[in-house]
Amino acid sequence: MTAEQETIKDIPLYISKSNVSTEMNKTGAWRFVRPGYDEKTAPCSNACPAGEDIARIEMLAGRGMFLAAWETILRENPFPAICGRVCFHPCERACNRGEMDDAIAVHNLERFIGDLAIRDAYALPHPFYGDESEAQKRAESGKRIAIAGSGPAGLSAAYFLTRLGHTCDIFEADSEPGGVLRWGIPWYRLPEDILKNEISRILDMGVTIYCNRPFDQTSLRETEGRYDAVFMGCGYGQPFSLKIPGGAYALDGLKFLHNIRDGGPDCVQGNVAVIGGGNTAIDVVRSLARMGSKPVLVYRRRQQDMPAFAHEVTMALEEGAELRELLSPIRISPIDGGFELTLQKMKIADMESETGRARVVPDGDRTETLRVDQVFTAIGADVSENWYLPPRHQDGLMTFSHTAFATRDLPTVFGGDLATPVKSATDAIASGKQAAMILDINPAKKYSKQIK
């Protein structure tokens, strides 16, 4: 109301009118019309692999109700402090607010809430689902699940299975739990105390983790009769090696990251080449830069074609790393205490229709050399045992978005890197949650006639 409009009578009266004819304007019936509302999933939640109710989390946080916001996250994701640091936050790319100015920094908000929960020692809500206590549900369930691997997928599966009333035992090949969260992500991205606190929440729920216990075929046979089902979340732990002359001189980037988290190695100095374009290569480059070396990232395609998350690549370049594009290594030769890396120049042939990435081919005989003090590779990894993978074209195999379910005598769900198309911590968490739901309802019993 302006200064000239002193009373309500001064406000203009607006009357609805029809743009067609008065016969279409059923004025008398308008009093009974009410707006209709369609329940839709917010774009940010739809983009979140873990399926968090992001709009509700933001609303609660905006009101200062941080405990309620934390509990809301935990309904879908047991690791807010971890994901707030390492998730590639696709929710922000889908955020409606980005159409106006900038997307809401959901990952920063999640990190803040997760850290606050650790600082103030928030307790898990009891009960979480329904009105029964978890102990009562676990006693009534009587199901015992064996979980291979204590990475994000295995820990997530244990969390949700325990919430649903089942007992879980995790078998971990390494000396400490966490999988790629502990050994594959540098400390500056995921501090030790944050990881320890988030995992301890799983242990406090009654989950048992057996470290230094690799899950092999003997272990699988031993589970029969002792467990009702198995979740395979072993991950990709066998790195690929360079199949070129002198490839043995290159050090494995994944092992390098593992050694850093394990208290070593000695600082690497000088000029260092890192071959690869994925997230592991970026973590190696950024770790080397923090040691005082001068890392050079060598990638056979273009920067925009790199499978690493774009914001991680940007941060690596801002921290001093150099990127050499369209170069593929063909030889590593030791020379004067260092190495000479011979690189084949590549050129773009065309674009891949499915991914939009450039397909590259050698640019004739054109090469260049790079003198470095050390060479690291981070060109991907595979399973250490082929039987970890879900069976191919087998009757009774049910595939889902993040898992594969083999309807054997001992029901087995494959998840994490073994089944998810996107290799990220958040997708692995989603895989573990989906596995928990599958094992809880055991669709093999319900649909056995159709499956067989």
TrEMBL record:
A Pfam match: Pyr_redox_2
InterPro entries the record matches: DPD_II, FAD/NAD-bd_sf, FAD/NAD-binding_dom, Helical_ferredxn
Residues of the FAD/NAD(P)-binding domain: 144-403
SUPFAM superfamilies, per database record: alpha-helical ferredoxin, Nucleotide-binding domain
GO molecular function: iron-sulfur cluster binding; oxidoreductase activity
Residues of the Dihydroprymidine dehydrogenase domain: 40-118
Signal peptide positions (record): none
Classification via PANTHER family: GLUTAMATE SYNTHASE [NADPH] SMALL CHAIN, GLUTAMATE SYNTHASE [NADPH] SMALL CHAIN-RELATED
Name of the protein in question: Glutamate synthase
Annotated source species: Desulfonema ishimotonii
Organism ancestry: Bacteria, Pseudomonadati, Thermodesulfobacteriota, Desulfobacteria, Desulfobacterales
